Amino acid sequence: MANLSGITKFLKKNRIVLVSVLVFALAFCCIFAFAGNDSDVEEIAPSEESSLNESLEGSIEESLEEPTVSEEGKLYGNGLYIDGCFIAAVDSEYEATSAINEILSIRVSSLGITEAEEVYFNNNVEIVYGEYPEEAFTDSEGLASLLGKKSPTYVARYVYDYNRVVAPVTLSVCSVETYSETITLEYESKTIYTDALRDGATKVVTKGYNGEGKQTYRVVSVDGVKSETNVVSLDVITAPTVEVVQVGTRSNGKNVASLGTFQKPYDGRITSYVGPRWGRTHNGIDIVAHDGGCKGDPAVAAADGVVIRADWYGGYGNCVIIDHGNGIQTLYAHFTKLSVKVGDVVKAGDEVGKIGSTGNSTGPHLHFEVHVDGEIVNPLLFVDYE
Ligand SMILES: [Zn+2]
Description:
The chain has helices spanning 4-13, 15-37, 39-69, 93-110, 140-146, 256-259, and strands at 74-82, 85-90, 118-121, 125-133, 149-151, 154-155, 173-185, 189-198, 202-206, 211-222, 225-238, 243-250, 269-272, 275-277, 280-282, 285-288, 298-300, 305-312, 318-325, 328-335, 337-338, 345-346, 351-354, 366-372, 375-377. The chain is of the alpha+beta class. It folds into 4 domains: 16-65; 76-171, no CATH class; 177-247, Resuscitation-promoting factor rpfb (Resuscitation-promoting factor rpfb fold, Single Sheet); 260-381, Glucose Permease (Domain IIA) (Distorted Sandwich), CATH 2.70.70.10. Helix 2 runs antiparallel to helix 3 (39-69) and helix 4 packs across helix 5 (140-146). The longest helix is centred in the first third of the chain and has 31 residues, at 39-69. The protein is rod-shaped.
């Protein structure tokens, strides 16, 4: 209670403490009023009163601690920090924000930004209430001047702190604009495999049409230079339609699916497919070992059947043909040695010959054909080589 001048000085600066002191004073009065007028209360009052007094004294001491340790020449106010750098203090938060907003609006108009939906400083701008040196205090206009304001239409690049020392900060302006454009929404294509068409044929069942959409972008610019563009929404104006394409799987009137799958006559890699080759049509697939060397390896029957040919057959060299019934035959060519004879009944996977390079062949490989009703079909419709 000794430092009365200290309290007065402090109370001038701090309304919160003033209120709390008033509350305590009120509490005091009530206690004394009760103690004086009511005997029932009087009996229990002393202990309560003393504990209240103790806590009251403690609270006051606590409350008074701040102003007494407060350094001389400091005042409470709102300090402006930019990117962590203290610039100056003003009495009210309003003064700080109006200085900031003024600088921002001058910067924005000098950058020629007119369409922006949002503008803000690309800096960490903080207003912190606290104690600041008296000399750090200025007013709204003074703060604007420290932030570079030279005239109502011009702001310099440098920012000064209250000591008129150039602060290590550069204010830059972020502006956000949105714009929309019409874009094409491309149609998707869906494939349906069907036996209604012959192998490989295609037919567009439903034509696909592109759609149209309105795409909206959000563009963020820093000091008028685009730094980021993001798509924020897409409104479909007309939706694209799905194109449906049928792809044929039928071979010579036979339903491929009903023919079942074959086993690989030799597990290797394909070096040549069915189709035109060297001015002629290649009627089968050529298979070699994955590492290329396949000479003498066994080739096997692709499905159950009866051997109807097992001999030299012109350009095929040593050749085996197996009839599987249902009009389907498989042909294996260029063997160095045959492992079956005509009339043999084979199971899928039974060896039919040793791979070689006999006949019209440039090197050891298995040539494999599939015939349906005497017509060449693509063996890959029956056997799966990945
Ligand atoms: Zn071949």
